Amino acid sequence: MTPTPAPGRRTPLARLRGPATFLALLAAALLLLPHLLEPFRLNLLTQYLCYSIVALGIALAWGRGGMLTLGHGVYFGLGAYAMAIHLTLAATAADPLTRGRLPQFMAWSGRTELPWFWQALTHPAAAVTAALLLPAALATLLGWSVFRQRVRGAYFALLNQALAAAFVILLIGQQHLTGGSNGLTDFPVFAGHSLYTPTAQTTLYTLTVLTLAATYLLLRHLTHSRYGRLLIAIRDGEDRVRYLGYDPTWAKTLAYALSATAAGAAGALFVPVMGIISPTLIGVVPSIMMVLAVAIGGRDSLAGAAAGALIMNTAQTTFSETFTGGWTYLQGALFVVVIALAPHGLAGLAHTARAALRRPRTPAPAQETATAGSTP
């Protein structure tokens, strides 16, 4: 006789279903899509997956920790500009007109030597390290100083938004260092290899998929650990957690720093894929769009948040190609419909549907037939 699993315990088959689905999606993304999509569409998909990496970090900070981050464009931009500076230096060294001296926009601005932070990003490893550590360091500094003062909720969201606005103003104002409103563009080589070949585009796509998968696995492990449960407790009742003897400051700071690191990694990947970075891609509006993508997918689910970024960017491209004059209205309608019909995002809607399908149907109570006794 086969033993029946206790209520609330998952069978071995159910425990393997999640990893099997993850591996199947990863294999399909790596093995099938590069052959099914033309290079232009594959490049677009790579850009969307970069935003999915950002969405994973926001889902950790907002969905688990309750920190509404409306300024993640800052951390995305730090990673992007760190990589863009290195690629600009590599392009300058390969250009026979500049002969490895200064980028053209610096020469036009009257500079005679490279800034110190440009010189520090000459090597590819230095650029990758800076793209990860700079967002983490800024988020740690900001988070620790803010969370220890018990700033949260709308005040924390507004502070993030102000940070994004200030960062854009800084980039535009320092045109001789950052390229100003035009940003940085034209990146032909990375580590001695051309970025314009189909092989390079496929390699960037593969690297983006693997980074997305690694980020998902890391954050999923954290959310299912004791630390993840502590984050949920802080989100639902920070004062109660503090009363029980825990200090929420370090837990929230760690989640915020990890979220910023994911955004920095996404920015570093986005630059060679897109071929440009400018303040318009990292300001207040793009930061809000990143949060809206997570809301569409479901902030309580890492997979839902990543899928939300993919769905939103795909819809934006499809609407803009099909309805040139009014695609923004269709995009707004998509937001309204999803938020109105699925407050917990598409992942919450899918979870509700699965629960309804798994709910056992209770048979209707049979009519009790009273047996009348014989009358004496």
From TrEMBL:
Entries under InterPro entries matching the protein: ABC_transp_permease, ABC_transptr_urea_perm_UrtC, LivM-like
TM helices/strands, residue ranges: 20-37, 43-62, 74-94, 125-147, 154-173, 202-219, 250-270, 276-295, 302-319, 331-351
Record key words, sorted: Cell membrane, Membrane, Transmembrane, Transmembrane helix
Localisation per UniProt entry: Cell membrane
Membrane topology: Multi-pass membrane protein
Keyword Cell membrane: yes
Domain of life (superkingdom): Bacteria
Name listed for the protein in its UniProt record: Urea ABC transporter permease subunit UrtC
Gene encoding the protein: urtC
